[in-house]
Structures are given as C-alpha cells and as structure tokens.
Design brief:
By secondary structure, the protein is α/β, with parallel strands linked by helices. It contains 10 helices and 8 strands. The longest helix is centred in the middle third of the chain and has 18 residues, at 168-185. The two termini are 22 Å apart. Residues 71-272 form the SRP54-type proteins GTP-binding domain.
C-alpha cells in the first residue's frame, strides 16, 4: 500500500543513493501522485520511480555538440583527481576513432605528473600533446597549442587545466587568463567548457558545479567513476538543480570507459531495475 510510511522509506532510499533531499522528495511525491492509498507492487514502484528519474535526466542527456568550427576549442576544468586527464585521453581516442584530428594541450603546467600522464594518453590515442616547461604560463601554452592546431587544420583542441581549489582566486585568474589569451586568436573560443566531476564525491559535486560555474562559463558536465559507486544519484540532483548537459560518463580507467549518458538505463540501474539486478 502506498501510504506515508512507504513514501518515507522510499525517500530515505533515494537520499541514500545520493539524490539529495530536495530531489528525492520531489521524485517520491511525483511518483505517488494519484496513487496514494493504492496497492502497488515493489516492481511497479521501482518502475514508476525510474520513470520519474528519467524525466529529470532526459533533458540533460546530450552529447558534446560538435561545431563546423575548426579547431573547436574545448577547455576541460575540474578539481584535481576528478578525472580530467583520463577524460581528455578517452575523448581524444573517441574523436580519433570518429575520424577527427585532435590536439591536446597539457595546461596543468604545475604538475609534472599530470603532463606525463597526458603524454601517455596522447600516445594511446595517437594524438599529439603540446607541453610547456614546468611552472610556465598555461595561457601561453594554450595560445601556442591553438596556433599549432590551426596550422595543422585540426578539428579539435582539448585543453587540460589545473584544478587547485584551495585557492579560488588563483584558479579563477588562471582560467580567465587562458580564455582571454585564446580569444586573441579566436574570439569565440572556448567553444565548450567541460566540467569533470567525480561521482564518488557525492553531494560535494553540487558545490563544485556552483563554484566552477562562477569562475568559468561551464557548458557541460562529464561525471567520472560511476563504476563501483552507490553515489550515482548525485547526477539526478545535478540535473534537477542546474540543468547543465551531461555529455558523457566515465565507467572505468581504460581508454574505452567513456560512455554516452543514457537516462533510461541510468534511472533503471539506480532503482535496481537494470538487467543484472532484476
Ligand atoms: N574507476 C574509475 N576511475 C577513474 C575514472 N576516471 C578517472 N579515474 C581514475 O581517477 C584517478 C584520477 O584521474 P586523473 O585523470 O588523473 O584526474 P585529474 O582530474 O586529471 O587529476 P590531476 O591529474 O591530479 O589534476 C586516476 O587514477 C584515474 O585512473 C572512471 O571513470 N572510473
């Protein structure tokens, strides 16, 4: 019977799946609409919940738009460890497989390890990686990389950035400078600003979106590490709160582990209705 008690336990479950309180209450209430006091089976409840969740996710499930512009400049932002470098490697590989020519700029010039890691990804994807000396100005590297990508007639330029969030002003200034400098070559760049978020940080992802939206003109999201986390529900909270496009999801550490975001499949998995769990 769909009564107050059942509704409360459903809300609890959604909150535990990290959908956030507001979104959980909304989804449960919509699911119960017109059904209160009725007998409903467990599978029906799951299906109804999955439907309500998919309704929130559908408008944001959009692949990264590809423009006729050449090179299309994609700035990749996010806190350290969120999976920026890995996502750039995976994206580069997918674009290459689709027949596009790609250049990567290793814009996190402060961390030698980040540059080396990108070089490895570049090799795997068969994509050149532009680097600069450690500690040098990332804006100047981005400018040179754009000039190089233009000269080569590349389709895409993917720019990695540093993500030190402990000093927001620094980060803001650095990102603003990169944008200012690349606009000297192309006033419309960057054409996309992707924010990479780590699903295992749960509700923290919401405050990261809040912060990065203020310091960069974020145009879309990639959520990484959705493999092996029970916290995927944060994607629903993100979609509900910000409505930013979710371009892709990371489901592992290897090059093929970046998938388009499928709202129905995601909603079914989240409510335990996916093929494996039925
Ligand atoms: N399981 C899993 N691990 C991932 C995924 N994406 C990235 N990782 C791992 O997360 C860790 C951090 O990823 P990086 O790509 O180095 O993250 P970053 O944001 O570039 O971080 P910095 O290099 O520190 O700036 C690495 O060990 C990756 O292998 C994913 O979708 N699933």
């Amino acid at each position: 019977m769909l009564d107050d008690e059942m509704l409360e336990s459903l809300e609890e479950l959604l909150i535990q799946a990290d959908m956030g309180v507001d979104t959980s209450l909304k989804v449960a209430a919509r699911m119960a609409e017109g059904r209160f006091g009725r007998r409903v089976g467990a599978t029906e409840v799951r299906e109804l919940l999955a439907g309500e969740i998919a309704r929130i996710l559908e408008p944001v499930a959009r692949p990264m738009p590809i423009y006729p512009k050449r090179p299309q400049v994609v700035l990749v932002v996010g806190v350290n460890g969120s999976g920026k470098t890995t996502t750039i490697g995976k994206l580069a590989s997918q674009f290459r497989a689709a027949g596009k020519s790609v250049v990567i700029a290793a814009g996190d010039t402060f961390r030698a390890a980040a540059v080396e890691q990108l070089q490895v990804w570049g090799q795997r994807a068969g994509v050149p990686v532009m680097t600069a000396a450690q500690g040098s100005d990332p804006a100047s590297l981005a400018f040179d990389a754009l000039a190089h990508a233009e000269a080569k007639g590349a389709d895409l330029l993917l720019i990695d950035t540093a993500g030190r969030l402990q000093n927001r002003d620094d980060l803001m200034q650095e990102l603003a400078k990169i944008v200012r400098v690349i606009r000297k070559r192309d006033p419309e760049a960057p054409h996309n600003t992707l924010l990479v978020l780590d699903a295992t940080t749960g509700q923290n992802a919401l405050s990261q979106v809040d912060i990065f939206r203020r310091i960069a003109d974020v145009t879309g999201l990639v959520m990484t590490k959705l493999d092996g986390t029970a916290k995927g529900g944060v994607l629903v909270a993100l979609a509900d709160r910000f409505g930013l496009p979710i371009h892709a999801i990371g489901v592992g550490e290897s090059i093929d582990d970046l998938q388009p975001f499928d709202p129905d499949e995601f909603a079914r998995a989240l409510t335990g209705l996916s093929a494996e769990s039925v």
